[in-house]
Amino acid sequence: MSDAKSVVQSVAKTFAVLGAFTADHAELTITEVGERAGLDRGTSFRLINTLVMLGYLAAVPGTRRFRLTLKCLDLGYSALSLGGLTALAKPMLRDIVPELADAASLGVLQGPDVIYVARVQADMGRRDLDRRVGSRTGAYAAALGHVLLAWMPPDEARAVLAAGDRVRLSERTLVDLDALMDRLAEVRAQGYATADGENAYGLRTVAAPVLDGSGHVRAGISLTIRVERQDLDAFVAATLPALLQATEGLAAGLRKIAPDAEPVRYRA
Description:
Elements: H1 9-19, H2 30-37, H3 41-54, E1 57-59, E2 66-68, H4 74-96, E3 103-110, E4 113-121, E5 136-138, H5 143-150, H6 154-163, H7 177-190, E6 193-196, E7 203-211, E8 217-226, H8 232-257
Antiparallel strand pairs: 1-2, 3-4, 3-8, 4-5, 6-7, 7-8
Helix pairs in contact: 1-2, 2-3, 4-8, 5-7
């Protein structure tokens, strides 16, 4: 049971206001919200106005009533679609490792970083190459990051890159913003990204985006091998068909899970 001293009452009251709206009570006045949420009118007034300002409530024209907006779906839509996407991705990744690659990952963009949300990995012989679910890496230096950025509007992609530290991880790592933007343009033109020791010595990677029906990137899949296993050109030739089949399969599944979801946009 939660300790009452650890509860932020204003947050609890805010969700009580949102919870006052139901299918049977889709439009409510301030007084009605207070009655259903167990709050006084002054508190209801302040919370409702705050939620209107944030875009989660809207005034019903010509009345003194308020209603929920579609923005409330953002509170759970991304998590639900991501959870479904992860479940769909895992068997596809397992089909690729270890036959075609030493590791296969599903990642999403969070700020200037890639977060790994699904991962299948063979023994790569080095503990520092173990990218566990929940771990992150700078999008600027990873093929997976490049495909997550390349389909964004250029000004948004540049803002994401500029928001994070760009440390040279090897002599091949690009850190200059203009050079990175040129790389993103190349990635978008060819439809996939590659990395040869740019993110970590001894690794080669190819990555492709998972696009929704509107062409917005929802996630990306990357395949990685140790350099001694195959040269980059042979690796790309051998794995690209399976990679694109996986991303296209996930895109089709995503359209069924959340066909009307709005694209995720980075906010600094």
